[in-house]
Amino acid sequence: MTDDRSLGDDIAAVRSGDTARFAALTERYRRELQVHCYRMLANYADAQDLTQETFLRAWHKRESFKGHAALRTWLYRIATNACLDFLDKRNDRTPVPSELASELRYLQPYPDRMLPEDPQESVVARETIELAFIVAVQHLPPRQRAVFILRDVLGWPASKAAEALELTVASVTSALQRARVTMREQLPGRRLDWRSPATHELSDDERSVVRSYIDAHERNDLGGLSSLLRDDLRFAMLPDSGTVTTTAKDAVDGWVSGGLFQPGHDDWRGVPTTVNRMPAAALYLRAPGDPEHRLFAIAVLHVVDGKIAELTGFDATGQPWLDLPPTL
Q1: Are 124 and 31 in contact (CB under 8 A)?
Q2: Which of 63, 163, 247, 265 has its CA 20 to 30 A from that of 307?
Q3: pLDDT in tens, 172-184
Q4: Which residues are in the RNA polymerase sigma factor 70 region 4 type domain (predicted)?
């Protein structure tokens, strides 16, 4: 994205002390800054909070905006450091060890409707917003994470990233090399050219699979549900801990033994949606005696060759998730 305002106008507007003028200038960056915070934190609610914190800090620091960098760069610097401050204070957000890759209990899905509108922007490239990428980034220490996102996702030069993080160029280069090794380890077989978006829209396969997944729930068709799953399915249900690799049959048997698809837990409705540029199903369950179906879970699907290879479920009971209707 290029800034079509003159730098002098930006400096005057930011430093004017006029709150309305300041908001009009900075608010257009809210969505992309929120995505940036989400990549840093993997949690949608926290990303919203830290984006707001970014604007508050920017307002209080407005006299420091000298125009040495573009306004957008200045805001990204503030947002990045706000996230780093947040991570420094949170013991539950330490880097995820490789052997505990599935323990990301704070992971939340990101609603596509809140992504920036420009589909060509690297900030919304599908490869850098999918859940697997977001989880992989959490394996990086916070400052290494920030370097990786600024350099390899946003495409900043090393000198610009170094200035934003108050590091040397050599430190940034070293951190990026280590981050790339970790990302390759965490995303084996995935396309790793994050600055050249390959896809944005769902494929016909993805649309078909999510419709069939919902249909299988609504008809309590366990055989049909099993047929949609790969036999090396990776499954997680957050905020419970643990991602398991399981066969399709064992996955369905486990859901049934846990009470799903049994009397009292067998009246389903589903709504197809998208989060993190991935196909997803909002699942609603009607309890006996309840006149309405209530939001139960959000299932995010990673589809490979017409089968569900990864299924990440998010418990949505009693939560206003992603502005979905609470009942059907």
Answers
A1: no
A2: 265
A3: 999 999 999 999 9
A4: 133-182
